[in-house]
Specification:
This is Curlin associated repeat-containing protein. The protein has 344 residues and is mainly beta. The chain has one domain. The strands form two sheets. Strands 1, 3, 5, 7, 9, 10, 12, 13, 15, 16 and 18 form an eleven-stranded parallel sheet that branches. The longest helix is centred in the first third of the chain and has 7 residues. It is elongated and about 60 Å long.
């Protein structure tokens, strides 16, 4: 997942554009200390699907697709083309999406999709002069997708995305702070069994700045980001299995960076787990499998200025935290901390 593809289109559709004076700019404060919860639970315990589904012209008389999805959004300001003079966003509550599908009757090769998204403390503007964002203390974003069936489904897709403390500006981001305290957590859990083609993806994103110019910003990440993908072979070995997790904290993309401080003392974990089978078993059965993990913390991505001129880069980065990956089968794996990629 590219940080620049954070679902701003989704946010724009769900959240009205903020009103403000174009010349003087907008000043706003957003506080959230409640709970947002979305739960989808489906239990299929009847007879065969053919007996449950009414046929008709163009219909096969059986279930071919099932989808469960949930989205929570809090403290979101979409002000494209407007200057933000000062913005404060605090989230000390919880955002939870839970999707559960249990099929005792079997799904006869149906396609299953489970997705969840939690979005908090997000600003998109032309220019942000001062910013203060805090995900916590005690904040939590959680996505849990669970699928189990007595007979294999066809295609199974499980995806979870948590996003907190993100500012994007077409021009600049000025002084301020982004805080992700020690008792705050982003978590994605995907649990699956009994499908022919399985893909599990989890992504956590915290403390992101994207602009042409960024200056005088301090960012502290001491919280926890966890992705756990579990496949249980009790229902049989799949033909294809892909498990992938991405954690991103303290990420900056800009042309010019001045007086930036990034401190990370939290933890990032990706767990790709097999239950009741091993990678050797998957090899023996001919399963096409991939397990991928990416943990990024304190990363600067510096774009070239127009005409190829070099911009200023002044930053202090410190990281003393755990980055771990469990399940390192075929696939891409990366652990990156205190890194700068400068394109000239």
């Amino acid at each position: 997942m590219s940080v620049r593809t954070i679902p701003t289109m989704l946010l724009a559709a769900a959240i009205p554009m903020a009103a403000g004076a174009q010349d003087g700019g907008t000043t706003m404060t957003q506080l959230f200390d409640g709970a947002q919860t979305g739960r989808n639970t489906t239990i299929l315990n009847g007879g065969a699907m053919g007996a449950l589904t009414v046929g008709g012209p163009g219909l096969s008389g059986r279930q071919t697709a099932l989808a469960q999805s949930g989205t929570n959004a809090a403290n979101v300001m979409m002000t494209e083309g407007i200057r933000v003079r000062a913005a404060t966003q605090r989230l000390v509550g919880t955002q939870t999406v839970e999707n559960a599908l249990l099929a005792e009757s079997g799904l006869g090769g149906a396609s299953i999709e489970q997705t969840g998204q939690n979005i908090a403390n997000v600003i998109a503007a032309q220019q942000v002069d001062r910013i203060s964002q805090a995900f916590g203390p005690g904040a939590e974003q959680s996505v849990a997708n669970r699928f189990a069936s007595t007979a294999p489904a066809g295609e199974l897709r499980q995806e979870g995305l948590n996003v907190a403390n993100v500012v994007t500006a077409s021009i600049s981001i000025g002084a301020g702070e982004q805080l992700f305290p020690a008792d705050s957590v982003q978590r994605v859990v995907n649990d699956a069994s009994s499908a022919v083609d399985i893909r599990q993806d989890g992504t956590n994103v915290g403390n992101v700045l994207v602009a042409d110019e960024i200056r005088d910003v301090a960012r502290i990440f001491t919280g926890e980001q966890v992705v756990t993908n579990t496949f249980d072979a009790a229902g049989g070995i799949p033909v294809s299995l892909n498990q992938n997790g991405v954690n991103i904290a303290n990420f900056v993309e800009a042309r010019t960076v001045t007086n930036l401080t990034q401190i990370s003392e939290g933890s990032q974990t990706v767990e790709n787990v097999l239950v009741g089978t091993t990678l050797a078993d998957l090899d023996a059965s001919g399963t096409a499998y991939s397990q991928g993990s990416t943990n990024l913390v304190n990363v600067l991505s510096i774009r070239p200025s127009p005409g190829g001129a070099g911009g200023e880069v002044s930053a202090v980065q410190g990281a003393s935290q755990d980055q771990s990956a469990v399940g390192i089968g075929q696939g891409a794996h990366g652990q990156v901390g205190n890194a700068a990629a400068i394109e000239r």
